[in-house]
Amino acid sequence: xxxxxxxxxxxxxxxxxxxxxxxxxxxxxxxxxxxxxxxxxxxxxxxxxxxxxxxxxxxxxxxxxxxxxxxxxxxxxxxxxxxxxxxxxxxxxxxxxxxxx
Length: 101
What we know:
Layout: E1 9-14, E2 17-23, E3 29-33, E4 47-49, E5 52-54, E6 61-63, E7 80-86, E8 89-97
InterPro entries: Rieske_2Fe-2S (IPR017941), Rieske_2Fe-2S_sf (IPR036922)
Protein name: Ferredoxin, 2Fe-2S
Organism: Mycetocola reblochoni REB411
């Protein structure tokens, strides 16, 4: 976790799956798909604010908790992955996504 900076996204590949990791201001780590559903752009290059990650290219904002797009032009959600932290190490299984209602 020491590699993460508060409110900045970091791109990681887990078994070939691009994931954006974010450490929020409350100390929670979020893992969402790193590809914008609007334009095939890396979300980890975007901006983090108030539990959202904004795509730098077209401004779509995605919820870090649900993956749902909160602004256009994106209308499809990105996957949200379950994060487990053990002894400061972050573990993500890219085959397991959170169930979001």
